[in-house]
């Protein structure tokens, strides 16, 4: 009796069109995991640059500047590679929230976001120096927080490490405890809009 052959697994989206020499200018576990969803091999190279927090820039300008600096810093040593730099900021009522300096600032940030809608702005800058090509874009998602009291805020912060996260929260961890709704890409809120990155990479 013949048994039917198992169907081959579906290839990951975009895996047949992505470039071979791909570098992520980040050590963020979140961005590494998100980029791995594309099913393509890439290398991880720390950018070694300090993120700017220039207050005169809009959230989009600030995130683009930091993404560019990360991408260019690595591309200088990887001139034939395609280097992805990304930066995420949280913005509410015109104010940009980066990574908190300490737990008190983290608590203040979550209190500010409580019961309100804010924007998560992620910019991506992709650079290859030789032959030269560059693509940059920004994606915005709208996030509405639940109304949180002081006890809820402290309980949430005890479960995560808020100091390495813009806005002091993580959309991939205990999301239902703080977030009421998300309009737009969840991946963008976590730190890398994967579908948009995949589309940009086809230009290379």
Main traits of this protein?
disordered N terminus; seven-stranded mixed beta sheet; 30% helix; alpha/beta; 204 residues; 7 helices
Estimate the strand proportion.
15-25%
| Terminal Cα span | 49 Å
- Give the C-alpha Rg: 19 Å
In DSSP terms, counting alpha (H) and pi (I) runs of 4 or more, how many helices? 7
Folded structure, characterized:
- It is a single chain.
- The model is unreliable at 1-9 (pLDDT under 50).
- The chain is built from seven helices and seven strands.
- Strands 1, 2, 3, 4, 5, 6 and 7 form a seven-stranded mixed sheet that branches.
- A hairpin with a 2-residue loop joins strand 3 (82-92) and strand 4.
- It is of the alpha/beta class and 204 residues long.
- It starts with 21 loop residues before the first strand and ends with a helix.
- Helix 3 packs across helix 4 (150-157).
Produce a short descriptive summary.
With 204 residues, this protein is α/β, with parallel strands linked by helices. The chain is built from seven helices and seven strands; from the N terminus they run βαβαββαββααβαα.
Task: List the topology elements.
Elements: E1 22-24, H1 29-36, E2 43-44, H2 59-75, E3 82-92, E4 95-97, H3 103-113, E5 117-128, E6 133-145, H4 150-157, H5 175-178, E7 179-183, H6 186-190, H7 194-201
Parallel strand pairs: 1-2, 1-3
Antiparallel strand pairs: 3-4, 3-5, 5-6, 6-7
């Amino acid at each position: 009796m013949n048994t039917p052959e198992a169907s081959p697994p579906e290839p990951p989206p975009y895996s047949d069109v992505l470039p071979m020499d791909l570098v992520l200018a980040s050590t963020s576990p979140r961005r590494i995991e998100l980029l791995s969803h594309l099913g393509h091999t890439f290398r991880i190279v720390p950018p070694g640059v300090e993120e700017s927090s220039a207050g005169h820039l809009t959230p989009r300008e600030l995130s683009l500047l930091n993404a560019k600096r990360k991408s260019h810093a690595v591309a200088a040593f990887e001139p034939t590679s395609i280097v992805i730099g990304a930066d995420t900021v949280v913005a509410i009522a015109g104010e940009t929230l980066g990574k908190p300096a300490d737990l008190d600032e983290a608590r203040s940030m979550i209190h500010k976001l409580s019961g309100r809608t804010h924007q998560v702005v992620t910019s991506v800058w992709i650079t290859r120096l030789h032959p030269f090509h560059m693509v940059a874009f920004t994606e915005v998602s709208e996030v509405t927080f639940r109304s949180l009291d002081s006890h809820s805020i402290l309980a949430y912060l005890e479960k995560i490490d808020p100091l390495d996260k813009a806005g002091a929260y993580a959309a991939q961890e205990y999301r239902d405890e703080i977030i009421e709704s998300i309009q737009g890409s969840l991946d963008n809120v976590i730190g890398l809009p994967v579908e948009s990155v995949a589309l940009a990479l086809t230009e290379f």
